[in-house]
Amino acid sequence: MSEHSDHNGHGHGEGHGTGFYFKIYLTLLVLFLISVAGPEIGEATGIRAITLVTAFGIALWKARLVINEFMHLKAEKRIMKWLLTTSVILMALMVAGVSPDVLNHRGNNWENLAAQAAVERGLAEMAGEVHEEEGTEVVEAEPAGFTAAASYGTVCATCHGAAGDGSGVAGAALDPPPANFTDPVFWEGRDRDRIITVIRDGAAAVGGSALMAPWGALYDEEQLGLMADYVMSFNPNQ
Ligand code: HEC
To answer: Distances in Å between the alpha carbon of 123 and those of 120, 131, 142, 150?
Structure first.
Protein backbone atom coordinates (compact mmCIF):
# COMPACT_ATOMS: atom_id res chain seq x y z
CA MET A 1 0.00 0.00 0.00
CA SER A 2 3.06 2.26 -0.12
CA GLU A 3 2.12 3.03 -3.70
CA HIS A 4 -0.90 4.74 -2.28
CA SER A 5 1.23 7.67 -1.19
CA ASP A 6 1.53 8.54 -4.89
CA HIS A 7 -2.13 9.33 -4.75
CA ASN A 8 -2.05 11.51 -1.70
CA GLY A 9 -4.00 14.66 -2.05
CA HIS A 10 -6.70 12.78 -3.91
CA GLY A 11 -9.12 13.53 -1.09
CA HIS A 12 -10.29 16.75 -2.73
CA GLY A 13 -12.19 15.49 -5.69
CA GLU A 14 -9.30 13.79 -7.47
CA GLY A 15 -9.97 10.09 -8.05
CA HIS A 16 -7.69 7.14 -7.44
CA GLY A 17 -5.60 5.86 -10.35
CA THR A 18 -6.28 2.54 -12.07
CA GLY A 19 -3.15 1.06 -10.53
CA PHE A 20 -4.53 1.74 -7.09
CA TYR A 21 -7.78 -0.10 -7.77
CA PHE A 22 -5.91 -2.98 -9.38
CA LYS A 23 -3.76 -3.26 -6.29
CA ILE A 24 -6.83 -3.33 -4.02
CA TYR A 25 -8.36 -5.94 -6.31
CA LEU A 26 -5.26 -8.12 -6.04
CA THR A 27 -5.21 -7.68 -2.26
CA LEU A 28 -8.84 -8.78 -2.01
CA LEU A 29 -8.13 -11.74 -4.29
CA VAL A 30 -5.25 -12.87 -2.09
CA LEU A 31 -7.37 -12.41 1.06
CA PHE A 32 -10.11 -14.47 -0.57
CA LEU A 33 -7.68 -17.29 -1.36
CA ILE A 34 -6.40 -17.21 2.22
CA SER A 35 -9.97 -17.30 3.52
CA VAL A 36 -10.59 -20.46 1.50
CA ALA A 37 -7.26 -22.07 2.38
CA GLY A 38 -7.38 -21.19 6.12
CA PRO A 39 -10.32 -23.42 7.13
CA GLU A 40 -9.06 -26.19 4.82
CA ILE A 41 -5.66 -26.21 6.51
CA GLY A 42 -7.33 -25.84 9.92
CA GLU A 43 -9.52 -28.85 9.15
CA ALA A 44 -6.67 -30.96 7.75
CA THR A 45 -4.27 -30.26 10.60
CA GLY A 46 -6.94 -30.26 13.28
CA ILE A 47 -5.66 -26.88 14.46
CA ARG A 48 -8.84 -24.81 14.80
CA ALA A 49 -6.83 -21.69 15.64
CA ILE A 50 -5.73 -21.45 11.99
CA THR A 51 -9.36 -21.07 10.91
CA LEU A 52 -10.02 -18.46 13.59
CA VAL A 53 -6.87 -16.47 12.91
CA THR A 54 -7.47 -16.40 9.14
CA ALA A 55 -11.15 -15.45 9.54
CA PHE A 56 -10.60 -12.65 12.04
CA GLY A 57 -7.30 -11.60 10.49
CA ILE A 58 -8.96 -11.13 7.12
CA ALA A 59 -11.91 -9.28 8.66
CA LEU A 60 -9.49 -6.89 10.38
CA TRP A 61 -7.43 -6.44 7.22
CA LYS A 62 -10.50 -5.60 5.17
CA ALA A 63 -11.76 -3.19 7.81
CA ARG A 64 -8.35 -1.52 7.66
CA LEU A 65 -8.53 -1.25 3.87
CA VAL A 66 -11.98 0.34 4.04
CA ILE A 67 -10.99 2.77 6.76
CA ASN A 68 -7.67 3.79 5.20
CA GLU A 69 -8.49 3.83 1.51
CA PHE A 70 -12.19 4.36 1.09
CA MET A 71 -13.03 6.36 4.20
CA HIS A 72 -9.81 8.23 3.35
CA LEU A 73 -8.57 8.12 6.92
CA LYS A 74 -5.02 8.00 5.57
CA ALA A 75 -5.46 11.43 4.06
CA GLU A 76 -7.55 12.87 6.88
CA LYS A 77 -6.36 15.18 9.62
CA ARG A 78 -5.02 13.46 12.69
CA ILE A 79 -8.08 14.38 14.76
CA MET A 80 -10.20 11.98 12.67
CA LYS A 81 -7.98 9.11 13.81
CA TRP A 82 -8.50 10.14 17.40
CA LEU A 83 -12.26 10.42 16.94
CA LEU A 84 -12.43 6.97 15.38
CA THR A 85 -10.21 5.41 18.05
CA THR A 86 -12.27 7.02 20.81
CA SER A 87 -15.55 5.71 19.42
CA VAL A 88 -14.15 2.20 18.99
CA ILE A 89 -12.87 2.25 22.58
CA LEU A 90 -16.25 3.51 23.87
CA MET A 91 -18.01 0.76 21.92
CA ALA A 92 -15.69 -1.88 23.38
CA LEU A 93 -16.38 -0.52 26.88
CA MET A 94 -20.12 -0.74 26.28
CA VAL A 95 -19.94 -4.32 25.02
CA ALA A 96 -17.72 -5.31 27.95
CA GLY A 97 -20.10 -3.64 30.40
CA VAL A 98 -23.23 -5.18 28.97
CA SER A 99 -22.05 -8.71 28.19
CA PRO A 100 -22.04 -9.98 31.82
CA ASP A 101 -25.77 -9.15 31.94
CA VAL A 102 -26.40 -11.01 28.72
CA LEU A 103 -24.93 -14.11 30.37
CA ASN A 104 -27.63 -13.90 33.03
CA HIS A 105 -31.05 -15.21 32.23
CA ARG A 106 -32.89 -12.87 34.56
CA GLY A 107 -32.36 -9.43 36.11
CA ASN A 108 -34.23 -6.42 37.46
CA ASN A 109 -37.35 -6.04 35.32
CA TRP A 110 -36.21 -8.42 32.59
CA GLU A 111 -36.09 -12.10 31.89
CA ASN A 112 -34.53 -13.95 28.94
CA LEU A 113 -37.22 -16.57 28.37
CA ALA A 114 -35.63 -17.82 25.14
CA ALA A 115 -32.31 -18.54 26.85
CA GLN A 116 -34.01 -20.21 29.80
CA ALA A 117 -36.08 -22.38 27.46
CA ALA A 118 -32.95 -23.28 25.47
CA VAL A 119 -31.14 -24.46 28.60
CA GLU A 120 -34.18 -26.43 29.72
CA ARG A 121 -34.47 -27.99 26.28
CA GLY A 122 -30.80 -28.98 26.36
CA LEU A 123 -31.24 -30.61 29.76
CA ALA A 124 -34.41 -32.36 28.65
CA GLU A 125 -32.70 -33.72 25.55
CA MET A 126 -29.88 -34.93 27.72
CA ALA A 127 -32.37 -36.78 29.89
CA GLY A 128 -33.45 -38.46 26.66
CA GLU A 129 -37.09 -37.46 27.05
CA VAL A 130 -38.26 -34.54 24.97
CA HIS A 131 -41.96 -33.93 24.65
CA GLU A 132 -42.44 -31.34 21.98
CA GLU A 133 -45.94 -30.22 21.16
CA GLU A 134 -46.52 -29.22 17.56
CA GLY A 135 -45.83 -25.56 16.97
CA THR A 136 -45.13 -24.71 20.61
CA GLU A 137 -41.99 -24.37 22.65
CA VAL A 138 -43.21 -26.56 25.49
CA VAL A 139 -40.54 -29.01 26.51
CA GLU A 140 -40.61 -31.07 29.67
CA ALA A 141 -37.75 -32.86 31.33
CA GLU A 142 -38.66 -36.30 32.60
CA PRO A 143 -37.75 -36.15 36.30
CA ALA A 144 -36.68 -39.80 36.17
CA GLY A 145 -33.92 -38.88 33.69
CA PHE A 146 -32.47 -36.16 35.92
CA THR A 147 -29.12 -36.68 37.56
CA ALA A 148 -27.35 -33.93 39.47
CA ALA A 149 -24.00 -35.05 38.08
CA ALA A 150 -25.15 -34.77 34.46
CA SER A 151 -26.85 -31.43 35.04
CA TYR A 152 -23.77 -30.12 36.84
CA GLY A 153 -21.70 -31.28 33.86
CA THR A 154 -23.80 -29.31 31.35
CA VAL A 155 -24.79 -26.22 33.29
CA CYS A 156 -22.19 -25.58 35.97
CA ALA A 157 -18.93 -27.19 34.86
CA THR A 158 -18.20 -24.57 32.18
CA CYS A 159 -17.50 -22.15 35.03
CA HIS A 160 -16.91 -24.25 38.15
CA GLY A 161 -14.95 -27.02 36.39
CA ALA A 162 -15.88 -30.70 36.17
CA ALA A 163 -13.88 -31.30 39.37
CA GLY A 164 -15.57 -28.38 41.17
CA ASP A 165 -12.30 -26.50 41.55
CA GLY A 166 -13.47 -23.38 39.72
CA SER A 167 -11.33 -24.11 36.67
CA GLY A 168 -14.05 -24.13 33.97
CA VAL A 169 -13.10 -22.54 30.64
CA ALA A 170 -15.88 -19.95 30.84
CA GLY A 171 -14.88 -19.09 34.40
CA ALA A 172 -11.31 -18.11 33.61
CA ALA A 173 -12.24 -14.57 32.61
CA LEU A 174 -14.71 -13.90 35.42
CA ASP A 175 -14.17 -11.48 38.27
CA PRO A 176 -14.90 -12.65 40.94
CA PRO A 177 -13.83 -16.13 39.79
CA PRO A 178 -16.31 -19.02 40.10
CA ALA A 179 -16.33 -20.54 43.59
CA ASN A 180 -13.83 -23.37 44.20
CA PHE A 181 -15.86 -26.11 45.92
CA THR A 182 -12.72 -28.16 46.68
CA ASP A 183 -11.28 -25.40 48.87
CA PRO A 184 -12.01 -26.09 52.59
CA VAL A 185 -12.01 -22.32 53.22
CA PHE A 186 -14.95 -21.93 50.82
CA TRP A 187 -17.07 -24.16 53.04
CA GLU A 188 -16.52 -22.06 56.17
CA GLY A 189 -19.94 -20.66 57.07
CA ARG A 190 -21.70 -22.23 54.05
CA ASP A 191 -24.46 -24.78 54.55
CA ARG A 192 -26.88 -26.68 52.34
CA ASP A 193 -29.61 -24.03 52.66
CA ARG A 194 -27.28 -21.33 51.38
CA ILE A 195 -26.16 -23.49 48.45
CA ILE A 196 -29.79 -24.15 47.52
CA THR A 197 -30.60 -20.44 47.72
CA VAL A 198 -27.59 -19.58 45.54
CA ILE A 199 -28.46 -22.14 42.88
CA ARG A 200 -32.13 -21.06 42.82
CA ASP A 201 -31.77 -17.28 43.15
CA GLY A 202 -28.16 -16.56 42.16
CA ALA A 203 -25.24 -15.43 44.31
CA ALA A 204 -26.62 -11.86 44.27
CA ALA A 205 -29.38 -13.12 46.60
CA VAL A 206 -26.75 -13.74 49.29
CA GLY A 207 -24.76 -10.58 48.60
CA GLY A 208 -22.46 -12.18 46.01
CA SER A 209 -21.81 -11.50 42.36
CA ALA A 210 -24.51 -11.53 39.67
CA LEU A 211 -22.08 -13.53 37.52
CA MET A 212 -23.42 -16.53 39.43
CA ALA A 213 -26.84 -16.45 37.78
CA PRO A 214 -30.10 -17.82 39.22
CA TRP A 215 -30.84 -21.32 37.89
CA GLY A 216 -34.19 -21.78 39.64
CA ALA A 217 -36.00 -22.12 36.31
CA LEU A 218 -34.12 -25.35 35.63
CA TYR A 219 -34.82 -27.28 38.84
CA ASP A 220 -37.76 -28.17 41.03
CA GLU A 221 -37.35 -28.30 44.84
CA GLU A 222 -36.16 -31.90 44.86
CA GLN A 223 -33.66 -31.33 42.06
CA LEU A 224 -32.34 -28.20 43.80
CA GLY A 225 -31.59 -30.38 46.82
CA LEU A 226 -29.82 -32.94 44.64
CA MET A 227 -27.76 -30.20 42.97
CA ALA A 228 -26.77 -28.80 46.38
CA ASP A 229 -25.77 -32.30 47.57
CA TYR A 230 -23.68 -32.75 44.45
CA VAL A 231 -21.92 -29.41 44.96
CA MET A 232 -21.35 -30.31 48.63
CA SER A 233 -19.77 -33.63 47.61
CA PHE A 234 -16.74 -31.61 46.41
CA ASN A 235 -16.07 -30.49 50.01
CA PRO A 236 -12.83 -32.27 50.96
CA ASN A 237 -13.71 -32.17 54.67
CA GLN A 238 -17.09 -33.77 54.52
C1 HEC B 1 -21.25 -18.21 34.11
C2 HEC B 1 -20.44 -18.91 35.07
C3 HEC B 1 -21.15 -19.73 36.13
C4 HEC B 1 -22.01 -20.79 35.96
C5 HEC B 1 -22.49 -21.40 34.65
C6 HEC B 1 -22.35 -21.25 37.28
N7 HEC B 1 -21.71 -20.47 38.21
FE8 HEC B 1 -21.78 -20.76 40.22
N9 HEC B 1 -20.58 -19.12 40.49
C10 HEC B 1 -20.06 -18.36 39.49
C11 HEC B 1 -19.30 -17.27 40.08
C12 HEC B 1 -18.57 -16.19 39.31
C13 HEC B 1 -19.40 -17.41 41.48
C14 HEC B 1 -18.77 -16.52 42.55
C15 HEC B 1 -19.81 -15.53 43.01
C16 HEC B 1 -19.25 -14.65 44.11
O17 HEC B 1 -18.12 -14.86 44.56
O18 HEC B 1 -19.97 -13.73 44.51
C19 HEC B 1 -20.21 -18.60 41.71
C20 HEC B 1 -20.53 -19.07 42.97
C21 HEC B 1 -21.25 -20.23 43.20
C22 HEC B 1 -21.54 -20.76 44.52
C23 HEC B 1 -21.11 -20.15 45.86
C24 HEC B 1 -21.98 -18.98 46.23
C25 HEC B 1 -21.78 -18.57 47.67
O26 HEC B 1 -21.26 -17.46 47.87
O27 HEC B 1 -22.12 -19.34 48.55
C28 HEC B 1 -22.25 -21.91 44.33
C29 HEC B 1 -22.78 -22.84 45.39
C30 HEC B 1 -22.42 -22.08 42.90
N31 HEC B 1 -21.80 -21.04 42.24
C32 HEC B 1 -23.09 -23.15 42.32
C33 HEC B 1 -23.33 -23.26 40.94
C34 HEC B 1 -24.13 -24.31 40.36
C35 HEC B 1 -24.73 -25.47 41.12
C36 HEC B 1 -24.17 -24.06 39.03
C37 HEC B 1 -24.94 -24.83 37.98
C38 HEC B 1 -26.34 -24.96 38.18
C39 HEC B 1 -23.39 -22.86 38.78
N40 HEC B 1 -22.90 -22.41 39.96
C41 HEC B 1 -23.19 -22.31 37.53
C42 HEC B 1 -20.19 -18.56 38.14
C43 HEC B 1 -20.98 -19.54 37.56
So the answer is: 5, 12, 10, 9
